[in-house]
């Protein structure tokens, strides 16, 4: 059984065979994956060793101390946090072996084709169609708010395959080739001036049936796996004490004593305590993950993340007074990563506004927590058993 000593020995052998100082970063990452040290809780042959998830920190610490390259997780967040766990749970052996290695090494970037102009919060109401044509599927529709679509080689896609069924039942999940004919990506400029999001038009896009994940009509079940992992990835990332947004606010407070007031001090203390409680709750959630797939509790973490990011960035903007109103660059850019805490206070304040929309709106997540965590009665849903084609639009 793999333990800490075994992992340290395996890591030492990897470093001896592939010294970071003389090995190309991509070659090192490939070797790390093949050694089972990419994500140790994954199965052997798929970047892991069937070891407890908690032991990943042992490997990461040893490699960081040796100056080994990482796989730029910020650029790969959708692949690592959403596509990979979905493929692991629902993909075939062939799909797992084809996609997981280049996903983890960063050779192939992934995006998420879920939300649509008419189906954002109500994802199951999506209208993008997938029509079977022999051993292929023909996809037509439009997706929106697609992070990293301008960089992506692959996308996780949910489409409607049977409009005669109720909206949750007529969906199927696919891997979409973003280089296929008929895929068009257009930038969406945000309030920050950047275009990290995109809208994606799918016109007669042909996908082989081998790109289907799960059974036909099982798309909602597969998508729920993705969504639960997405919310943990957004709201439950490991953070040190005074990490993230609260660390920036605390640093500004210490650096600018001339701007301090009693009211701002009290509000900062409240936010600091809230941030620490959320951080510790995230630690507990990650410990629960060692016993299985994420549950609805991840929705609560994502809710807390969005609320705190908006409140702290607002506090910081107010604390910095006129300095908080400056903005360094409104140039339209299409960044490769999303940095919630980057740049100046004005950028952080504006970017945080999207935190309560992306990865599931706060309103939808409140319903999930109420119904699936607290056990409260669900809201009335008159469309639950009606064929999608008969729903008013």
Tell me what you see in this structure.
With 393 residues, the chain is an alpha+beta fold. The chain contains eleven helices and eight strands. A four-stranded mixed sheet has the order 1-4-5-8. Strand 2 (129-133) and strand 3 (136-143) form a beta hairpin. Helix 9 packs antiparallel against helix 10. The longest helix has 28 residues, at 262-289. The termini are far apart. The relative contact order is 0.10.
List the helices and strands and how they pair.
Blueprint: H1 4-17, H2 25-34, H3 56-65, H4 77-90, H5 93-105, E1 110-113, E2 129-133, E3 136-143, E4 154-160, E5 171-177, E6 183-188, E7 197-208, E8 212-213, H6 219-235, H7 244-255, H8 262-289, H9 297-319, H10 345-352, H11 362-373
Parallel strand pairs: 1-4
Antiparallel strand pairs: 2-3, 3-7, 4-5, 5-8, 6-7
Please outline the major beta sheet.
Answer: 4 strands, mixed
Work out the helix count: 11
User: Given the helix and strand composition, which structural class is it?
Assistant: alpha+beta
Give the strand content. Answer: 5-15%
Residues in helices, as a percent range: 40-55%
Basic shape: globular
């Amino acid at each position: 059984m793999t333990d800490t000593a075994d992992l340290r020995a395996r890591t030492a052998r990897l470093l001896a065979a592939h010294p970071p100082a003389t090995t190309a970063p991509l070659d090192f990452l490939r070797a790390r994956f093949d050694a089972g040290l990419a994500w140790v809780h994954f199965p052997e042959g798929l970047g892991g060793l069937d070891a407890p998830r908690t032991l990943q920190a042992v490997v990461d610490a040893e490699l960081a101390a040796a100056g080994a390259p990482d796989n730029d997780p910020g650029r790969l967040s959708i692949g690592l946090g959403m596509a990979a766990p979905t493929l692991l749970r629902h993909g075939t052996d062939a799909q797992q072996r084809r996609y997981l290695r280049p996903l983890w090494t960063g050779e192939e970037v992934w995006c998420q084709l879920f939300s649509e102009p008419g189906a954002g919060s109500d994802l199951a109401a999506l209208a993008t169609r997938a029509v079977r044509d022999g051993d292929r599927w023909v996809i037509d529709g439009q997706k929106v708010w697609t992070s990293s679509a301008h960089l992506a080689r692959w996308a996780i896609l949910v489409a409607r395959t049977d409009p005669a069924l109720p909206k949750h039942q007529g969906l199927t999940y696919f891997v979409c080739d973003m280089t296929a004919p008929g895929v068009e990506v257009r930038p969406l400029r945000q309030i920050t001036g950047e275009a990290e999001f995109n809208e994606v038009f799918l016109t007669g896009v042909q996908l082989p049936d081998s790109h289907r994940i799960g059974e036909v009509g099982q798309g909602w079940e597969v998508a729920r796996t993705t969504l639960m992992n997405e919310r943990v990835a957004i709201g439950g990332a490991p953070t040190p004490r005074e990490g993230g947004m609260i660390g920036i606010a605390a640093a500004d407070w210490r650096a600018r004593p001339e701007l301090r007031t009693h009211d701002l001090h009290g509000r900062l203390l409240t936010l600091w305590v809230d941030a620490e409680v959320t951080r510790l709750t995230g630690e507990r959630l990650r410990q629960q993950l060692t016993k299985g797939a994420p549950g609805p509790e991840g929705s609560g973490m994502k809710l807390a993340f969005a609320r705190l990011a908006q409140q702290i960035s607002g506090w910081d903007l107010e604390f910095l007074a006129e300095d908080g109103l400056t903005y360094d660059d409104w140039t339209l850019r299409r960044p490769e990563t999303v940095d919630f805490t980057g740049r100046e206070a004005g950028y952080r304040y504006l970017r945080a506004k999207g935190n309560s929309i992306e990865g599931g709106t706060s309103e939808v997540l409140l319903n999930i927590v109420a119904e699936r965590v607290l056990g409260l009665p669900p809201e009335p849903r008159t469309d639950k058993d009606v064929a999608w084609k008969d729903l008013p639009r």
